[in-house]
Amino acid sequence: MDHGVGCEVKRLREKRGWSQARLAVEADMSVSGVSMIENGRRNLTTTTLAKLAVALGVQVADLFPKAEAPLPFEEDVPKQRRSSEAVRESYARLIEAWTKHVRSRARSWEEKLGPWEERPRLNRLPGADLWAKQVQEDAWAMVDTVRDLRLWEAGGEAKPLLGDLMHALVEMSGIARQVCTEIRRPEPHWGSVPDLQFIIWSLMGPYKSKTIWMKATEKEYENPENVRRLFEQEFEKLLPK
Fold first, then answer.
1. DSSP label at residue 98
2. Which of 5, 128, 198, 238 is most buried (CB neighbours < 10 A)?
3. What is the average pLDDT across 101-116?
4. CA distances (Å), 123 to each of 80, 95, 117, 180, 181, in order?
């Protein structure tokens, strides 16, 4: 569960002097929903995170406890550029927070796999759809966050951090894909494919995924590391130059 985010939501709420009922109204949520989030008993989608952020007057990144590092530029002195070390630290802390969040989501899904597998097959379909959707939402939220924070300004040193997050997303998508393939396969033409295609599909859509995968199945890309390298190249194209 996202207990770290829940604690931060509670801290921000109390800082404003709001009750859970007030936050529920501002975020267009139920009081019980707010309570579950603050107590770490509810998994958060990007839609919910966005609602909470708007209601509390912060950015989505601010809801993550480790993502409190200062911006690369001082807000009160726009022309003053921070040291490169401070810039790297700021980005590193944010990406580490996202990575921890993604892996936390993966663990919570993994815990649910057992109970789902014990249920009748017909009852499994809604869960598979929901998990697939959550993977896509998290993947796009990560891309948007990277864009918003202009991670590419940190230069080459940002790439290892981005790589760590990508690997965490691959780990999470593997668990979600296990649900989708064993319970309900979202795309019939997928067949039996490695977990990496799931995250490519999540980030870039079915058409782009198919194009990448056709290229990746050429002889020179039989090595999984070559496939991963190809994906990283495609991912970098998502970032503005």
1. H
2. 198
3. 58
4. 57, 36, 10, 13, 15
Q: Which long-range contacts (CB under 8 A, 24 or more apart) does 30-38 make?
A: 34/9, 37/2, 37/5, 37/6, 37/9, 38/6, 38/7, 38/9, 38/10, 38/13
CATH class of the structural domain 4-63: mainly alpha
Distances from the Cα of 147 to the Cα of 121, 235, 239, angstroms: 40, 12, 7
- The closest alpha carbon to 202, from 227, 225, 171, belongs to 171
Residue in the block written with tokens 């802390």:
93
Cβ 141 vs Cβ 60: under 8 Å:
yes
State the pTM of this model: 0.34
The residue behind tokens 């990144």 is 61
pLDDT one-digit tens code per residue, 145-158: 555 444 444 455 55
C-alpha dist (Å) from residue 228 to 35, 42, 231, 235:
40, 32, 5, 10
> How is the chain split into domains, by residue range?
4-63, 72-236
